[in-house]
Amino acid sequence: MIGTLISFSLMAIGARELSGNISTYQVLLVRSVIGLCVVSFLIFASKKKELFSTNRLPLHSLRNVFHFGGQFGWFVGIGLLPLSEVFALEFTVPLWTALLASLFLGESLTLKKMMAIALGLLGVVIIVQPTQDVMNAGAIVVLCAAFCYAVAHTSTKSLASTEAPLTILFYMCLIQLPIGLVLSWQTWKMPSALESVWLLLVALSALSAHYCLTKAMKNAEVTLVMILDFFRLPAIAVVGILLYDEPLTPALIIGGVVMLFGNLLVTYKSNRRNQ
């Protein structure tokens, strides 16, 4: 999970630097192209060509359509909101994931998990403050992205029971590449040298993030993985302050603490159960 935290933070920095210069569709296309090349090389190097095959193509397709939608919303949100607010709103993912995992994977939805969900929703209300301007467009986009990510994460947990991490990554890139190609066709722009560096950073950090996340989900309950992922919030808040002079508002701090408290309830429960 440490690798996941670092990778997602680097990807956020790259996305912010590209925002307004390169279209989100193009960023996702380049990411898929680079990812497909890297993953294919790793599979060939491992001499395990069976990793290219799967018997679960429909679930891979479902996962990656929703994952592409989640990425699009996340990248758009990075350009509209402070980094820490994007990450805070993204942490509604465990709420949706807990519900979806309970419905489709048979994971138990305990009282403490329900308390964590309630506290998470309260934290979102505190951060977004929906009574002001109803709800800002950037926040809505990120919340929709969070639901898409939850579907993708739940699908990943199911896939991880039979598929190797490299197989999941291969089909992620293979399925999302044509989607990005079609959508970026009208907005393609030749990137500058510096923009190319940021695109490479986004592609490689995204790849490493999903590899680490897939490995974590293979060895732990999906809801617990999402809860540990919460610790990206304080890390990205520091990045936003140091690199972009972003404000750290009282609402964000209070809402984040409320969400963290709810998530820690479940983490403590899981640790006690595993001891």
Key features of this structure:
transmembrane, 275 residues, globular, EmrE-like, 12 helices, EamA domain-containing protein, mainly alpha
Q: What does the model show?
A:
The protein is mainly alpha-helical and 275 residues long. It has one domain (2-274). It is built from twelve helices and no strands. The protein has helices at 2-18, 24-46, 57-80, 83-90, 93-104, 111-128, 137-160, 165-184, 193-219, 222-228, 232-244, 250-274. Helix 5 runs antiparallel to helix 6, helix 5 (93-104) packs antiparallel against helix 10 (222-228) and helix 6 packs antiparallel against helix 12.
Mean pLDDT: 84
**Quick one: overall form?**
globular
Would you report the number of β strands?
Answer: 0
Distance between the termini: 20 Å
- Which range does the strand content fall in? under 5%
Helical fraction equals over 70%
Derived from helix and strand composition plus strand pairing, the structural class reads mainly alpha
Element-by-element helix/strand order = HHHHHHHHHHHH
Number of helices: 12
Low-confidence stretches: none
Report the radius of gyration as a whole number of Å: 18 Å
Biggest β-sheet description: none
Number of domains: 1
Transmembrane segments: 24-44, 65-81, 87-106, 113-128, 134-152, 164-185, 197-213, 225-244, 250-268
Organism: Vibrio lentus
Keywords: Membrane, Transmembrane, Transmembrane helix
Membrane topology: Multi-pass membrane protein
Quick recap of the structure?
The chain contains twelve helices and no strands. It has 275 residues and is mainly alpha-helical.
